[in-house]
Amino acid sequence: MFADYSMPELMSIFAMQGFAGLSLFSIFVLMALGLAIIFGQMGVINMAHGEFMILGAYTTYLTAQVFESVMPGLYGGYFFVAMILAFVVTFALGALVEWLMIRHLYHRPLDTLLATWGLSLILQQTYRSVFGAREVGVSLPDWMMGSIAVTDLVEIPINGLFVMVLSLLIAFAVYLLMFRSGWGRQVRAVVQNRPMAEAVGIDSGRVDRVTFALGCGIAGVAGSAFTMIGSTGPTSGQLYIVDTFLVVVFGGAQSLLGTIASAFTISQAQSTMEFFLSGSMAKVLTLLFVVGILMLRPQGLFALKVRR
Amino acid sequence: MKLSKPQTPPRRSSWTRRHLLGGLMALPALFALSSNALASEVNTTGLAVTDDTVKVGILHSITGTMAISETGSVQAEKLAIEQINASGGVLGRQIEYIQEDGASDWPTFAEKSRKLLVNDKVAAVFGCWTSASRKAVLPVFEQYNGMLYYPTFYEGLEQSPNVIYTGQEATQQILASIDWLAKEKGAKTFYLLGSDYIWPRTSNKIARKHIDKLGLKVVGEEYYPLGHTQFNSVINKIKLKKPDVIFASVVGGSNVAFYKQMKAAGVDLTKEKPLLMTISVTEDEILGIGGENVEGAYASMKYFQSLTNSNNEAFVKAFKERWGDDIVIGDVTQAAYLGPWLWKAAVEKAGSFDIEKVQAASPGIELTTAPEGYVRIHENHHLWSKARIGQAQTDGQYKVIYETEELMEPDPFPEGYQ
C-alpha cells in the first residue's frame, strides 16, 4: 500500500500517525484517571462516570454562553475558567452523591454498579429536560481550533496538544496527591486496611467522600476538555464509558501506573491498526487483544497485593 | 400523551323497546348535529374514528440516544396535525394524537406500535427514524394492517403496502450528488467514509457503483462504529490519499467529533481540497457540530431550511412560532411534516379511513403545498422529489446551490446498483 508514495510523504504520515496515537493515549488517560481513582481505590464501580464527564461539558457550554454575552473581550480565555468550574461542579455533585448513596453501599460492589447506573439514567434525563434532547454546540476560541503546520503535510492540531498537556498535568497532580501528600497516604492506608486506618485516627468516611468527589471532579475536567473533540448531548457520556472501563480494568484496578500503561498499550494498538485496517476491524481486534490478555492475567497488567 | 374519555360500551342486556325507540328518535338529531359522513361509513374496520374525531399515533424516541434526531420529527408532525385541525380536520374530523416513546430501543418500537394498532386502533402512525426501528415495526404493521408514514432518508431495498416513505431512498440522494460533483467540480477520486451500519454501507455501495459507471475512482472506503469519537487515523489516511471528494455518511455524535477533528487537523473545507459531500448532516446536526467547524461542506438533501419558495417561508414561520425562534429545520423534519398532509390527502381521496382504501388511494397523491415544493407519491410508496445540493455556512444554514430540474423517480430497488 505504500508503493505509490514518496519517502517524505511516508515519513510525515508516520509522524502524524504517531501524534494521533499519542493524542489518543492522552485522551484515554484523561478519561480513565477519575474512574481509576474511584474504582481502584474504593472498589466502587461508577457507571455514571460518563455522565459526570458530560456535566463538565455542559458547564463548559454554559460558561461559554456567559462569556459570549457578558464579557466577549475575554472570550479567548474562557476555557480555563470553564475547566475550573467544571471541576468544582462535578466535585460538589460527586461529594453529594457519595453522601446520599455510595457510602451506604460500600462492600457491595455489585449494588454500587446498579445504583450508579440508575444515577446515570437520572442524570441523562435531567440533562435532556434542562438542555433539550439535541446536542449543544460548544464554540471554542479560535486559537484552540487551529493547527501548527510543521511541514506541508505534517500538521499538529492545537487541541490535541492541549489535551496532551492537560492530561500530563493532571496525571502528575494525581501522582503528587496520592503518593507524595499526607492525604494520599491516608487514602492508601484506608485502601489497604480500613479498620487499622481507623484505629490510628483516620476519618475513613471523609477520605472516601473526598476520593469519590475527586474522581468525579477529574471526570468533569476531562468532559470539559472533550468539548474540543467530541459531542455534548444528554447521552454523549455513553460514548466514553466502554473505553474508560476497558483502560482501567486492563491496567489492573488498583494501580494508577497500570492505568497509564494500559492507556498507552490500547491507544497505540488501536491507532496503528486503524491505519492499516478499517475502523471497525481495528476496534474488534483491540477488544480481542484485551480479552486475550485478561484471560491470561485476570488481575490486569499491574496488580497490587492488598489485604482485604 | 392525549387520552380519550373512556367510552361506555352499550350494555346489551338492558335493551328494551323504550331504549330502542328513544334511540331511533334521537337519530335525526344526530344527523342534524354532524354534517359529516357517519363514522360507520368511513370506517368499516373498527378504527378509532368517531363522528368528530380520528385518532393517530406518533411513535418516535423522545428518550435515549436517538432523541437528538427524532425531536424535530415529533415537532413537525404535531405542527402538521395542529394545522390540519385548524383548517377543518380530515373528512371533517379533528385529529387526536397518541404519542408513544420508542426510547431508542427497537423492541420497544415494536411493542409500542402493537399497542397503537391493537389497543388504540389508530388510523395512521407517523414515526420511526432509524432503519432498525422501521425494520422492527414492519412485521407489526403488516400483521395488524396499519399505516406508517416514515420520514427519514434511508437505504431503500424495501417496499411495503403499509408504509409511505416520505424521505428519500438512497439513489435520490446519491446519484444526483455524484453527477454534480463530476460535472461541476471535476471530481475524479472519492473517499467513502461512514458509520458502520446498514444505511452508510448500502449508500456507499450505490455510490461506488455509480462512481465506477462514470469512470471515476474510489480511493478508500472506511467505516467506524456508531458513536466512535476518534477520527485522527482516518484523517491522516485521507491526507495521504488526497481524494478530490470525501463522501461522508457519518451519523450521530460521531459527526461532531469528525468535523471538529478535521478542522483541528488543518483540513479547511472551504478550500475544497478535498471537498466534502455529506448525506447525513442536516441543519439539526450542525447545531451540535457548530457552523464554524463544518463551513464549506456540501450536503445532498431534498430540503434545506433556506429554500426561498413561498410554501417554505410560511412553513418556517409557522414552525418557529410554534417551537421557538432558535429552532432549525432539517431535511427529515420537513419529510416528517409531509406525513400527516399526505395521509389527509389520501383519506379524502379515498373518502374513507379504511387502511385498504387509503393504500389504494395513495399512489398519485400530490402535495403542492409541501415546503420542499411539489411532491407526489409513486406506485412504490416513495415520493417523487427533487435532489438539492447546499453548502454549509458559518451560521449553521445551507446555501442552496443546485437543484435537479426534474423530480427524481424513487427507485428503492435500483437495478445494477446492488
Overall description:
The complex is a heterodimer of chains A (308) and B (418). Chain A is an all-alpha fold and 308 residues long. Chain A has one domain. Chain A is 72% helix and 2% strand. Chain A has helices at residues 7-42, 49-70, 78-100, 109-131, 142-145, 158-179, 182-192, 194-199, 204-226, 238-251, 256-276, 279-296, and strands at 147-149, 155-157. Chain A has a two-stranded antiparallel ribbon with strand order 1-2. In chain A, helix 1 crosses helix 10. The model of chain A has no long low-confidence stretch (mean pLDDT 85). Chain B is α/β, with parallel strands linked by helices and 418 residues long. Chain B has two domains: 1-168 and 308-385, 3-Layer(aba) Sandwich (Rossmann fold); 170-301 and 386-403, Rossmann fold, CATH 3.40.50. Chain B has 14 helices and 15 strands. Chain B has a seven-stranded mixed β-sheet with strand order 7-6-8-9-10-14-15, sandwiched between helices. In chain B, strand 11 and strand 12 form a beta hairpin. The radius of gyration of chain B is 23 Å and the shape is elongated. At the A-B interface, helix 1, helix 6, helix 10, helix 11 and helix 12 of A face helix 3, strand 7, helix 8, helix 9 and helix 10 of B.
List the helices and strands and how they pair.
The complex is a heterodimer of chains A (308) and B (418).
Chain A: H1 7-42, H2 49-70, H3 78-100, H4 109-131, H5 142-145, E1 147-149, E2 155-157, H6 158-179, H7 182-192, H8 194-199, H9 204-226, H10 238-251, H11 256-276, H12 279-296
Antiparallel strand pairs in A: 1-2
Chain B: H1 17-33, H2 39-42, E1 53-60, H3 67-86, E2 94-101, H4 106-119, E3 125-127, H5 131-143, E4 148-150, E5 163-165, H6 170-184, E6 189-195, H7 198-213, E7 217-224, H8 232-241, E8 245-249, H9 253-264, E9 275-278, H10 283-289, H11 291-294, E10 298-301, H12 310-323, H13 331-350, H14 355-361, E11 366-367, E12 375-377, E13 383-384, E14 388-392, E15 398-403
Parallel strand pairs in B: 1-2, 1-3, 3-4, 4-5, 6-7, 6-8, 8-9, 9-10
Antiparallel strand pairs in B: 10-14, 11-12, 12-13, 14-15
Helix pairs in contact in B: 3-13, 4-5, 6-7, 9-10, 13-14
Subcellular location (chain A): Cell inner membrane
Pfam families (chain A): BPD_transp_2 (PF02653)
Transmembrane segments (chain A): 20-40, 77-97, 156-178, 212-233, 239-263, 275-296
